[in-house]
Amino acid sequence: MHLPGLHHITAIAGDPRRNLDFYTRVLGLRFVKKSVNQDDPETYHLYYGDYAGSPGTILTFFPWAGIRRGRPGTGQAYATAFSVPAAALPFWQQRLADLKVPTAPVESRFADQVLPLFDPDGLRLELVATAEADPRPPAPAADVPAAVAIRGFHSTTLAVAHSAATAALLTGPMGGQSLAQAGHRQRFTTATGGPGTYVDLLTDPNLPNGLSGAGTVHHVAFRVADDAGYHAAHAELTALGLGVSPEIDRAYFKSIYYREPSGVLFEIATDQPGFAIDEPVESLGARLSLPPRLEPDRAAIEAALPPLA
Ligand code: ZN
């Protein structure tokens, strides 16, 4: 397999308005797509990312108002990290303090400085201030200067009780490589390295078993460049007996899902056709987008969804 990096990461949230406010106003991401959970169309599926909705920048949420919080821990994607420029952390520390966003002390991790923070549902995010080249243009935001803005994903950290089987999947069938180890953390890349390609395995014995709920990640999706690679990945994962899903057309990309040996749900998603298939880039996120099979039910779906404004 050739997986050029992370495609999107999907997490579970509580109140959708609070979620929208945090990711667009506080973090300065673009609201790329307002859609519905295709398996539960009376709840939203909200997508945030860069201006164009590029693969590798997209954090999405299934928000269910009133859902109980989960417990971050092993068997989950424990932290979702964004890439910011090397000198950006003082801006973010001040901004997050001013906006009363919970943070944790800055950590050194490999060559980078990492600022952990928590969204309104307790989801663990990280801003990785890196000197590595990251030419991805940030989304324009009202009061986050481009020089310090989020570039897209840096990495996902998977908390696992034992890393060997997951590491073997990442470096074998998934075509990645191991890059570095420090303490309980081992870093992999799905490609040749660079922000947006990293998968860290964290084997911290102090972490509890994870429980799904608000503030936890639902799945991690990796990019595949084209349909040929997508079908080949499906065949290879099927042959491995990983219980891979059928091929599913998600309108904005085609997907397959499988659970890696430590229990984290993985997805492989095509870069095409992308989020501009049903609305122009200039007005992404402005109206409720529905996959074609749900379009006949638009009136009932819109009536059942809580207002976001
Ligand atoms: Zn997904």
Multimer state? single chain
Strand content: 35-45%
The CATH class assignment is: Alpha Beta
CATH overall fold name: 2,3-Dihydroxybiphenyl 1,2-Dioxygenase, domain 1
Number of helices: 5
The fourth-level CATH homologous superfamily is 2,3-Dihydroxybiphenyl 1,2-Dioxygenase, domain 1
**Fraction of helical residues:** 10-25%
Radius of gyration: 18 Å
Question: Which distinct ligands sit in these coordinates?
Answer: zinc ion
Number of folding domains? 1
Helix/strand order: EHEEEEHEEEEHEEEEHEEEH
Q: Give the total of beta strands.
A: 16
Q: What is the spatial order of strands in the main beta sheet?
A: 2-3-4-1-13-16-15-14
What is the distance, rounded to the nearest whole angstrom, between the alpha carbons of the first and last residues? 42 Å
Which outline best applies?
A: globular
Q: Identify the CATH architecture.
A: Roll
The average pLDDT is 96
Largest sheet, in brief, is: 8 strands, mixed
pLDDT < 50 runs, ≥5 residues: none
